[in-house]
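agent: user wants the full assembly modeled, not chains individually. Plan: 1) parse entity lines 2) check alphabet per entity 3) run joint structure prediction 4) return tokens. Steps 1-2 passed, two entities, 838 residues total. Proceeding.
--- entities ---
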Amino acid sequence: MRVEIVAIGTELLLGQIADTNSQWLGEQLAANGIASHFHQHVGDNHERIISALRIALSRSDAVIICGGLGPTQDDITRSAVAEIMGVSLVRQDFLVERISAMFASRGRPMTENNLLQADVPEGATIIDQTRGTAPGLICPVGAQVIYCVPGVPYEMSDMFTRAILTDLIARSQAEGNTSVIASRVLRTWGAAESGLAEAIDSRFDELENSDRVTIAFLASGIEGIKVRLTARGDNVEHAVALLADEEVIVRKLITDAFGDVIFGVDDETMEHAIASRLVARGLTLGLAESVTGGLISSRLVNIPGASQWFRGSLVSYASALKHELLGVAQGPVVSAEAAEQMARGARELLGADVGLSVTGVAGPDEQDGQVPGTVFVGLAVGDSVSHVSFRLPGDRARIRSYGAISALNALRQTIDRLL
Amino acid sequence: MRVEIVAIGTELLLGQIADTNSQWLGEQLAANGIASHFHQHVGDNHERIISALRIALSRSDAVIICGGLGPTQDDITRSAVAEIMGVSLVRQDFLVERISAMFASRGRPMTENNLLQADVPEGATIIDQTRGTAPGLICPVGAQVIYCVPGVPYEMSDMFTRAILTDLIARSQAEGNTSVIASRVLRTWGAAESGLAEAIDSRFDELENSDRVTIAFLASGIEGIKVRLTARGDNVEHAVALLADEEVIVRKLITDAFGDVIFGVDDETMEHAIASRLVARGLTLGLAESVTGGLISSRLVNIPGASQWFRGSLVSYASALKHELLGVAQGPVVSAEAAEQMARGARELLGADVGLSVTGVAGPDEQDGQVPGTVFVGLAVGDSVSHVSFRLPGDRARIRSYGAISALNALRQTIDRLL
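--- prediction returned ---
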């Protein structure tokens, strides 16, 4: 089963937006053992979309089209696919009703062109929308298939996970491919990719000729380095068992080399790691953020049920607020002392059990004699008030993002050590 | 002159790295009025690279290949291009010397496989390396041309700017094409894509056969809808003038239909719109965030110089903090009254001139009898304390993101109205 990704949109060709969809889909297909040999980008042009699809169908078993399903004049994926299928577009009454109802529920007037999104090629199946208006499509072309999904990443990923992957796996099994893939991502923070690769090098060599187990690195920028383990088994139990064995081996290699750098698996983020520790101990958290500007707080509240353990954050961007509200002594506010006082102050002001603070310099200018990238993290955990410091690379946004995850990682390790 | 970009590397197909090169090249080509109708990604496989190149040459005048020029076994771009050209690879002594000297100067041992980078298809011209080891190549294929550059972004961009662009412009002018492209993006918040399309519909019709001006929509999710205007002129002045005229027309159509929904152009974000208004009036801002959890604050501090006008934010996630620190009366905290009290309280607690607050329900559960997506924004601007409310779609993260930009947009419009 070979799947080709065709991303549609003149904005991709003009470089106005990045094609993150092909990367995401590529990663998902690989994790599920489905081959993908080509990706294409093509503009909002009927003839060229047709040409790209014919090429894709000449060399791949299935095609995923991202984009061109919206309500505007340049959204022409539906008509191009209908032409490839050799069928007409038929307006579906139930989709008309659904789209109308969605506008009504938001109290917004619906213009006529929105109903273009109710047009479906004859013989195609709908992938219901749960996050937007344009439904996705599963379009058979003889024994092959074209999937159409919106270009909006979170609508696309939802439809892939909910409908397309299942369909692809069913098709793959119908071809007699009954092997099953299981994969797991180990998420690390604090080790470089080259260092991780060196730590696992011996295992890479052992697996070189294995058609059962593979290891890959995914550099994920501000979220650290992911190590993806993939196992191909004869059935689910077999794949899961192979994967579990491999995880033990790789975890040991990483931990022996770098200590406690694995903070989660699969979709578990650093904030999940914090939430689970606080919930287990019945503790609440309060933050004082300066350089991170609310970023840590905004990450933590993404966890459902955060109100159980998260009190809040004082974003004390103006130095005066650090002195007046957090009790930081007069003097430089980018310092280890200020970070500790902020953590203690946050705990008191916000009525929390645990206090975490971040102060630093995002740049472009120095502050308090500290160069951009300097970050102090304060930790008020149990009876101990302590700090750690970092020198982080990158521009303002990068320093802030690295600062946020570094602070959360320090809190994770401090809770594990002290509580 | 149509240029196709072919990015080579199995890591692109597996989603292990993002293809930022195609985006960057697309932007550069567009800015120089050179058309690009297709991009391709293909893995490190000889046969499939050959196939991708033949397809590219069948529909484009020139091809830029990124990647596959390194020293390892899977770097096979050179041999694939030689096959397409119908020539042999010849090892160039001067390149052998140059590569050897580079290793010597860095005090690193050179393994034999590095000399693969000295192999050049007969008839090709070298693009000198200034940042790495593998030279680039300009490879004539009849009247067409294939450019080969390394996949490392900063080596690629250097070679493009230094050698490829000049060559492309010379070829384009030799064809008699001297046109120049200019483009501008109008950024909107508060109008649906379909509504914008309808508002501009008459203009779309007028431009249908224009080869001078085009309009496109870019749905940018939580950042609103972008309207891109592109003009092709005989020279820079002509393109800029065409673009300016078109902007006047489209701005009027949008503003007549939806009022003040255009908040910026090109790279200007909503936070830039807020910053410029506060700086112009010499005012400072303080926030009280509940449902947005620090997201508004973290967006604002991305603007360099934010300390000039941003005091800070109290993320009052626990209801008790709203009562204790912001003076919100006992009772429901998801209400218009609470939002107004929070805005007033933020202004006082944080010592700011303007107060902005957000309270609401991100879900999945109801709160204070309000359904998920309900958001109240409080505005303490000048002598007036007011509120606006929204019913926002999506999951927790989505409601929070929409809430943040909706609140900033309300502040923008309120400042324009009152101050």
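agent: reporting back. Residues 236-258 of chain A form the longest helix (23 residues). Chain A touches chain B through 95 residues (CB under 8 Å).
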